[in-house]
Every structure is written in C-alpha cells, then in structure tokens.
C-alpha cells in the first residue's frame, strides 16, 4: 500500500519530504513551477480519475500555490486566500460560495465529493491497521453514486 506522501510525490506536486510538509502545513503547498490553470485541471482530472470537474476562475491564469481539502471545501475559501493559494482543490462547492471565491479571485477545482475523499481511503486503512493491529479489507464496491451524462 502506498503512503499518501509517496502518492503526492508521484503525482508531481512536490517531493516526498515536501509532501510531508504539505500535509503538516494544513494541505497547502507549492508546485515546482507555475502552470496555467487549464493545464493543471487536466493533471487533476487524471490523478483523481475523473472525466470532468467544476471550475471557478480564469483558465489562463498561472498558478503555483495550491490548497486541497476533501469533501465540501466551501468553509476553507478564506483560509486558502489567507495562505496565499492560487487554487483550492475540493468537492461540493456551493453556488454562492463559488460566487464569493470568484469575486475574491480564488480559483477552485471541484472534483466532486466522492473523488476528493477517495484518495485518502488507503492511507486511512494503513493507519487503522497499524494503530489497532487488525486485518482490514478495502471494499471494492464503494463507488460514486452520481453519474454524469
């Protein structure tokens, strides 16, 4: 099973040690270099294994500093801005929160609630196994209940 730090590093976000720091910093970190939001979205879709995402922001804007939060990240918009994030990756951004983010100049990539939390499942499984010395089995039936047409 792969540790989340290794996965983040393998995705090209930062080094493994950088990923450890990213996690300690409250899920905020810097890409190795600037990239246009549109290009970054393509990477995110690939890494999160989703066909589409919802976007708030300017697709041509260059980004470097990212924030990420699983599930609904609406309440983290101001935190992301205070930490200097160019983009917040999350799921379930509400309509009015998207408007606020847009007015405040924060780009958002909404990968959907399921996708934003699914990556953490194997990491949590490993923690539970080690903490409680129990056998754990990762379900293969867990899937996104929504379909996009």
From TrEMBL:
Transmembrane segments: none annotated. GO terms for cellular component: cytoplasm. Signal peptide: none annotated. Belongs to the GTP cyclohydrolase I type 2/NIF3 family. Keywords: Metal-binding, RNA-binding. Coiled coil: none annotated. It comes from Caloramator australicus RC3. A divalent metal cation binds at residues 113, 117. GO terms for molecular function: metal ion binding; RNA binding. Pfam families: DUF34_NIF3 (PF01784). This is GTP cyclohydrolase 1 type 2 homolog.
